[in-house]
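Reposting from the mailing list since nobody answered there.

I have sequence plus structure tokens for a pair of proteins and want to know whether others read the tokens the same way I do. The first protein:
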Amino acid sequence: MIGVLSCSKLDLRDIYGAHFEALAPELDLRLPHEIDRPEDVTFMVTFVPAADAFTPYPNIRAVYSIGAGVDAIMSCPSLPPTVAVHRVEDPDQARQMAGFAAFHVLWHHRNMGQYLANQKINNWQRQLTGLSPRAQRIGVLGFGHMGRAVAKALTALGYPVASYSRSAPQPSENGVTHYSAGRFDDFLAQSDILINVLPLTDQTRGILGTENLAKLPKGAALIHLGRGGQVDEVALIDALDRGHLSGASLDVFDVEPLPSDHPLWTHPKVFVTPHVASICEPQTTVLSIRRTQLERTPLTA
């Protein structure tokens, strides 16, 4: 089984090469310049493929994302329509996302940014009301593998949690109020802290712009863990500057890495992290790819 490691953003051999050799010796993975017979390649491992990444390989039947996201793969113009696209769905990765989201909910709810500022000036000022989780309504935008884990963690902490997806989830999640198509405005209006974990699609691109940010309650906070391209960053800064939003935690951006001169770096109400909310361990990724590929193409005697 010959596959190709092809990514425009990451050195996949440096990150995963040793793990494939140790854990998946059945998979013969090569870099593009090491492929002498492109017609022998039957699968690709990637995350952000170049526009022409699939063009040289007429017999590719499967492509594996090294993470949970597949939007860059699905939008690749050279992706053949018959190729099966696989993502990693790892319970540990969902737990990472849930913990990361819970940290930022507490950051905004308990006003931790202000305490850090106060520490710098030796200011002993305390917030004595509104500390109960019941005081903050959480909205989880997107209710797939990651969204469910986030909602479960926050309901366990006592927060009232609502979720939104286009259709009603099956099964439902205990303690979570669900909003579906036709009730997006109602969902936004009750979200004191909005957590976005949507995938990037034509429908979700730009979903959090001027109009929808204005539908959040005054003083709401945004935790953006989905994909760059979903939040209008200019509109977000405007909402923060006007005081309509009290703060934002941003892990994903339109351009990554975030340019060094971008105003989000220095905005006093913004917490920036470099796309680290949830990262699957290399060993888990390799074993997931191995398992799926062997199921697709069983070894023969």
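The second protein, same order (residues first, tokens after):
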Amino acid sequence: MAKTLFDKIWEKHVVKEIEGGPSVFYIDRHLIHEVTSPQAFAGLEKRGLKVLRPQQVVATADHNVPTLNQHLPIKEALSRLQVEKLKENCEKFGIELYGLGHPYQGIVHVIGPELGITQPGMTIVCGDSHTSTHGAFGTISFGIGTSEVEMVLATQCLMQSKPKLMRINVDGELNKGVVSKDIVLYILSLISASGATGYAVEFAGSAIRSLSMEARMTICNMSIEMGARCGLIAPDETTFNYIKGKVFAPKDGAWDKALAYWKTLFSDSDAAFDHEININAADIEPMITYGTNPGMGVGVSGHVPVLNEVNDQEKPSFEKSLQYMGLQPGENIKGHKVDYVFIGSCTNSRIEDLRMVASFVKGKKKADDVEVWIVPGSKQVEQQAIAEGIDKVFLEAGFQLRQPGCSACLAMNEDKIPAGKYCISTSNRNFEGRQGPNARTFLASPLSAAAAAISGKVEDVRDYMN
């Protein structure tokens, strides 16, 4: 019987099927951080339980950490407490921690792939919605709640119902100036922020296969923004070459054995999906969001929808979002003033993202009235940027290269966008208050963010390329 990529991984990890209910589902890797783990560890202690398989758990500090002066004590009391509690719990339960000062510290969804912890065919969970990032390697990866974090720590299993399956095919060649962030924002603009609810989404097609691993991670990262349970891409030579030689990648004979299995991980040609969408890559232009969810986006040459372009059911939330953003129906976003530029987050903080930005801004200067934060996704990315001289390019352009962390993706640390200010951001969410109380967020690609940093307003990056 023909099987999808999802089917093949799912069936290998079902420990027990419960008739009319969810399955007992085995988890290969459990990633934890300081925000969603304290209550889970407290629950274990209350019940006198141990972590069943601590060697399959990896911890790092990312959400609450400052991105300046990480050698100093954390100023915010709650952030400091959560980071200290993570260290204490990891020591108590025998879990590997990549905390502040460790050469492997970074955003949990950046360090998993770059260390070779993330491997095809795995099941991976974390108390963080953007765990879907790891699906770029051909894994079933998804975010879980705090009670589920406790369940995985105690049993290495979860209760899970199998989702419906969707495939989104993107075929053809991408236009100049269009990168993976534009692909996923385009998909979101087509199907909405709830268009994949209840589905596991496989991304396929020639345009997807042409992408690097880092670009694929960006797409799977934002599958959760469509409402999907997870997103995944079949592994191929690009995947295998990326993993080979990584710190925790299989070595010698174990590599050959792993590779033989990984090469079986694809959807059979006659496998059936519950829903399928076909997209022509040539239809995609650099994208920008205008509203307060990631599905509210348009091509940069377009305009904010007018009321008769919005269905009646969505009009109240549409009008509310424009009021929050200070925009008008029919307005062009191109040319709109920008106060801050944030390049970072688990979506776009990898070395490829930083190289892309550095290549664009080399020899240019930022606009005088714009503040630019570049936040690498890990210590390894930071060190690589310094080794390649990218830090000097940023310094000369007037950009600030900070230290690793989630930073201004979410208002959970010191890096907040002031109320009423506009930030063009490479992160994944533009919800009200996401980057700080009453902060206003335009989501875009690293290239579009770099162009805005130079001019001080939203630009069509293609104008710089002609």
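Reply #1 (J.P.):
I read it the same way you do. The mean pLDDT is 97.
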